[in-house]
Automatic annotation (TrEMBL):
UniProt cross-references to InterPro entries, sorted A to Z: UbiK
Origin superkingdom: Bacteria
Originating gene: ubiK
Compartments where found: Cytoplasm
Protein name, UniProt field: Ubiquinone biosynthesis accessory factor UbiK
Family annotation (PANTHER family): UBIQUINONE BIOSYNTHESIS ACCESSORY FACTOR UBIK
Pathway(s): Cofactor biosynthesis; ubiquinone biosynthesis
Main location class: cytoplasm
Length: 86
């Protein structure tokens, strides 16, 4: 994984090359090159896609619901085994 400082330095270097050309780039060309630049920078980071993140959130929510159900069942069984003494 690329450290944040190195990533920012790399982005700055590439961005300065885009801006410092002899002739200004047309907007579409600039956007295309900037997109490639960002994709290159993001590929060096340890990131997950939105789809992968969303699917893991579903798994986490399902697991959390099952855990809560199990905790409730354990509490119910413990209450049956150890009735409160008054």
């Amino acid at each position: 994984m690329l450290p944040p400082k190195a990533l920012l330095d790399t982005l700055a270097t590439h961005a300065s090359r885009l801006f410092s050309g002899d002739s200004p780039l047309p907007r579409a060309e600039f956007e295309a090159q900037f997109k490639v630049l960002l994709q290159s920078a993001f590929s060096k980071l340890d990131l997950v896609s939105r789809d992968e993140f969303d699917s893991q959130m579903v798994v986490l929510a399902r697991t959390r619901a099952r855990l809560e159900a199990l905790e409730a069942k354990v509490a119910e069984l413990e209450a049956k085994l150890n009735p409160p003494t008054e």
